[in-house]
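Q: Sequence in, structure out?
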Amino acid sequence: MAQRWPERLWIVRHGQSLGNVARDLAEAGQLPRIDIAHRDMDVPLSPLGRQQACALGSWFAELPETERPQVVLTSPYVRARETADIMRDCGGFSPDAKRPTPDERLREKEFGVLDRLTRTGIETHFPDQAEFRRLLGKFYHRPPGGESWCDVILRLRSAVDSLSLHHAGERVLIVSHQVVVLCLRYLLEEMTEEQILAIDRQGDVANCSVTEYRLDPADGPNGCLKLTRYNVTAPLEREGAPVTREPDAAVAAR
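A: Exactly. Output:
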């Protein structure tokens, strides 16, 4: 049997960012816009986000060397790359792991004209888009200059193909964003729109939470990746790092 999939796959959302903090302040003040100076792709981790990333790296470091990530792929956004770098510095990767590799297909969902707007801001400045989103749903609604969840899934299909082509039998870690975590679940588990949105409604993906798949070689002709944990924050809690679940600063209405 030809092995097609990684032996293990971890998908991690980045640590808390300064954008998460700014979004919370805007929501608390019922402001229409999120006040942050950086481009979304340049938003760094907050001090708490750095603590979360090291806590997660320390958790991985307690695994035997033969069970830690060998291949690390990240969103090119600063907050994801910083999370991976801190995890590495805290001993979380296999000794033979290469430096984390940015992959633009793993970037955050693009929000176009709705970037940095809270829900209040969208309803105030773009009431037509708020109505389109209500009618179409978040899975299919594409704001001007932005992406729908379907658009994100389309580019992630290529990333999943790369996993099977180049990383069969390896232990792979992906560090990315909330929507990417959910859309990868949609692809790997062959879900429907209704199924993945039901999971989304259960709550946000926590910063530095772990979603893990393991290869079941007996499932099908090439084996299959099986979900073993989703949105798990136990590594942070054990290290005493506070758990945060904020949406990113790009937009509150995902």
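The chain has one domain: 8-238.
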